[in-house]
Design a protein that fits this description.
Layout: H1 12-19, E1 34-41, E2 45-63, E3 77-95, H2 99-109, E4 117-121, H3 124-127, H4 129-136, E5 139-142, H5 145-159, E6 164-167, E7 175-177, E8 187-192, E9 196-201, E10 207-213, H6 217-228, H7 233-242, E11 250-251, H8 252-256, E12 270-272, H9 286-311, E13 316-320, H10 328-342, E14 347-351, H11 357-366, E15 377-379, H12 396-399, E16 406-412, E17 417-418, H13 440-463, H14 471-491, H15 501-514, H16 522-544, H17 548-562, H18 570-578, H19 584-590, H20 600-610, E18 616-620, H21 626-641, E19 645-650, H22 661-674, H23 676-683, E20 687-691, E21 704-705, H24 706-714, E22 719-723, H25 725-730, E23 740-746, H26 750-755, E24 763-768
Parallel strand pairs: 1-4, 4-5, 8-13, 13-14, 18-19, 18-22, 19-20, 22-23
Antiparallel strand pairs: 1-2, 2-3, 3-16, 6-7, 6-14, 8-9, 9-10, 11-12, 15-16, 17-21, 23-24
Organism: Pipra filicauda (Wire-tailed manakin)
Protein name: 4'-phosphopantetheine phosphatase
Pfam families: ARMT1-like_dom (PF01937), Fumble (PF03630)
Length: 772
């Protein structure tokens, strides 16, 4: 998209027109299937929201009818790619300058809309009412601004895990993203527009305006224009970012010669805004005056917000409004003010998508009959533009708001997601082990790692659809899109929240789905499941021939050996592609057995020897083929034999070669036909197969299928087993649970192994018992 003043734009309006004549799949994506609209028009920006149905490909598996057939050489199951319709929310932000052209564009591409009404909020809803009705032929139904803001805020707090951040001055990490608390209420919302509105939000529908101020963004803009002759708000902020307020403001040390010790005031505190202008006989720079004005207004707002937070016993304040808009200088001054006046007891928080709150709220008001809040929603990284850098010195063209279109897309998930009931403290749970936003060395390594793997992933995607004439073209589009995402993340690692290995993997999966590659490893999984099933009975016979203690060791070693078969790890995929005969026994010989036998494993063995059987075990499975069939199922069988019920949880959708819920049903059916222990457990509902609600190679225990969570409660689960590098190392390595847990994985990355003090194919075996 062209941007004013950007590289190669040539400046002028010619370059801006290009950004609004792009095809609908670039900005107004899937517009032809739009069903419902809402719009939020502020003083300078328009935010459009619409709901559409998206048709995309999904991979399905179906068991063959093998009755009366020799199944030795038959595939285990049938794979088909089908079309599926899902719901998506689109949010687009652009300057009011382009509203007429954008409305024309929408009208020209609108095909299937079902509504005759467009919900509208914001001051511009009155100004542009006639234009909207004329252009779109829809009746404008205006909604209350504050109600829409609060509804939108509640929605993003619930559905976007890395939505909230604190701004850190002079830190390598500009943003410190917050953990989503399961209960988002109560909170204080401070909306800084022309003036300031302070609202206490207690529940979804209970909120009240408790205060405000006429000194807000409009004051900064108006006085700034008088002082500096600068008319544009963003240009005024740019001036302020370069100014030095101490040239204009009178400080405590200017009055007292240093700190005022009696009151505990440091010498660098502002004693009088613009105080030096009354005594100095000189001209002050525009930059210094803008900075002084910004500090004066921010301090006033910060003190007011802090007083209201204290009065109502609240420790979280969310700031929004056009005064904020992700600008570093405003966030920095607001944060400083709140920290100073509250002595660190109240936190100034900002929202990654605060500019969309009104549009989201207006949309929700118009969709109340569909009850969108009954669903869970997830950000689609492939279609969202992400948060721009707040640094005015880095990529200045990205800081220029004129001529840019920001986008947010959210997909409706098939099933509602909730916390795992066994989390020790859901409010402090952080899924990811390493924050790549903080760790520059790890960030550089993993971004390079994903870049180097990209050609192979694109090749695999194209090869998975040999009968498709455009598979190569779509694979190249996927490769280019994901490459661009990686380059964005090199410059702006905070673009989609905290950058982690999980977010890099999820973004890749989103981009694959965007270009209709729903399951590139489906044929690989089909083949490996079939091969592993043929070995199942011999593995069980071998295990049953062992003594009890020797068998426990063999079961754990089998679990770990099975986990070697991970096509997402380059060290493994290279072996599997070059050595087709590489199998279960070869994987066992690769394991680097660290001293887990002397510590964690010995504790686990002692627990099995001396403790009563666990009531119910929840096992999160990882890979298809040898992993689940020869590693996980023998372990499941042993637990069942001890009298422990088992809940086996698999991904709802495909990711790499991870086993999916639908695949696990077929695999389990075939195993049950061979093994009486598994057969009777299925029949008596002692073995239950469930889906996690996830389509990721990693695991977020705060976003799991509600049905799984309910089953965990019903069966009084007292053991959780998490298997795999993505689920037990990249995520959940430090996860604290209220019951016993096992975390097992093989480290299949040399760099990570070295960092953890081991070698490639070293094993992780963590048995943890919660503190009483």
């Amino acid at each position: 998209m062209a941007e004013r003043g950007g590289r190669g734009s040539g400046g002028g309006h010619g370059s801006l027109d290009k950004s609004i004549t792009l095809p609908p799949d670039e900005i107004f994506r899937n517009l032809e299937n739009a069903k419902r609209f809402a719009i939020d028009i502020g003083g300078s920006l328009t935010k459009l929201a619409y709901y559409s149905t998206v048709q995309h490909k999904v991979a399905r598996v179906r068991s063959f009818d093998h009755s009366g057939k020799d199944i030795e050489n038959e595939p285990l199951y049938e794979i088909s790619v089908q079309e599926e319709i899902t719901a998506r929310l689109h949010f687009i932000k652009f300057e009011n300058t382009y509203i007429e052209t954008c409305l024309d564009f929408i009208k020209d591409h609108l095909v299937n809309t079902e509504t005759k009404v467009i919900k509208a909020t914001g001051g511009g809803a009155y100004k542009f009412k006639d234009l909207i009705e004329k252009k779109l032929g829809l009746k404008v139904d205006k909604e209350d601004v504050m109600t829409c803001l609060i509804k939108g805020c509640n929605f993003v707090l619930r559905n976007i895990p890395h939505e909230v951040f604190a701004y850190q001055k002079d830190s390598d990490t500009e943003f410190r993203f917050q953990t989503n608390h399961p209960n988002i209420f109560p909170y204080l919302l401070v909306n800084i527009g022309s003036g300031v509105s302070i609202v206490k939000v207690e529940t979804e529908d209970k909120f009240e305006w408790i205060g405000g101020s006429s000194i807000g963004g409009g004051t900064f803009w108006g006085l700034g224009a008088l002082l500096t002759k600068t008319k544009k708000f963003d240009e005024l902020l740019q001036l302020a970012s370069k100014g030095q307020h101490t040239n204009v403001d009178m400080l405590v040390k200017d009055v007292y010669g240093g700190a005022y010790q009696t009151l505990g005031l440091s010498g660098n505190l502002i004693a009088s805004s613009f105080g030096k202008s009354t005594t100095a006989d000189k001209e002050f720079s525009k930059e210094d005056m803008a900075k002084s004005l910004l500090h004066m207004i921010s301090n006033d707002i910060g003190q007011l917000a802090c007083l209201y937070a204290k009065l109502h016993n609240l420790d979280k304040i969310y700031f929004g409004g056009f005064f904020i808009r992700g600008h570093p200088v405003t966030m920095r001054t607001i944060t400083y003010s709140i920290n100073f006046f509250s002595k660190g007891e109240v936190q100034a928080l900002f929202l990654r998508h605060e500019g969309y709150l009104g549009a989201i709220g207006a949309f929700l008001k118009g969709a109340e009959q569909d009850n969108p809040n009954q669903y869970s929603w997830g950000e689609n990284y492939a279609g969202s533009s992400g948060l721009m850098s707040t640094s005015p010195d880095v990529y200045p063209m990205q800081r220029t708001r004129s001529g840019t279109f920001d986008m947010l897309e959210m997909d409706r998930l098939e099933r509602p997601l909730v916390n795992l009931p066994l989390l020790k403290d859901p409010s402090t749970y952080i899924p990811d082990t390493v924050d790549l936003t903080d760790d520059a060395m790890a960030r550089k390594y993993w971004l390079t790692c994903f870049e180097e793997a990209l050609d192979g992933v694109a090749k695999r995607a194209a090869a998975s659809q040999p009968d498709s004439v455009d598979a190569q073209e779509r694979a190249e589009k996927f490769r280019q899109k994901y490459w661009n995402k990686l380059q964005t993340l090199r410059q702006q690692p905070f673009a989609y929240g905290t950058l982690t290995v999980r977010s890099l993997l999820d973004t890749r999966e989103h981009c694959l789905n965007e270009f209709n590659f729903p399951d590139p490893y489906s044929k690989v999984k089909q083949k490996e499941n079939g091969i592993a099933l043929k070995r199942f009975q011999s593995v069980i016979e071998s295990l049953d021939s062992l003594g009890w203690e020797e068998r426990q060791f063999a079961l754990v070693k089998g679990l770990l050996a099975g986990n070697v078969f991970d096509w997402g790890a380059k060290a493994v995929s290279d072996v599997l592609e070059s050595e087709p005969q590489f199998g279960f026994e070869e994987a066992k010989s690769k394991l680097q057995e660290r001293p887990w036998l002397e510590d964690s494993y010995s504790q686990w063995l002692q627990r099995l020897k001396e403790g009563p059987p666990h009531k119910c075990a929840l096992i999160f499975a990882d890979n298809s083929g040898i992993d689940i069939i020869l590693g996980v199922f023998p372990f499941v069988r042993e637990l069942l034999s001890r009298g422990t019920e088992v809940i086996l949880a698999c991904n709802s959708g495909p990711a790499l070669n991870d086993v999916t819920y639908s695949e696990s049903l077929i695999v389990t059916e075939r195993i049950a036909a061979m093994d009486p222990v598994i057969h009777s457990a299925l029949r008596d509902e002692k073995l239950l197969l469930v889906q996690t609600g996830s389509s990721s190679p990693c695991l977020d225990l705060s976003r799991l299928d509600a049905g799984l969570a309910e089953l965990v409660r019903e069966r009084q689960t007292d053991l959780v087993v998490i298997e795999g590098m993505g689920r037990a190392i990249h995520t959940n390595y430090y996860a604290a649970l209220r019951c016993e847990s096992l975390k097992l994985a093989v480290i299949k990355n040399s760099w990570l192994a070295d960092r953890l003090g081991g070698k490639i194919f070293s094993v992780i075996f963590k048995y943890e018992v919660p503190c009483k």
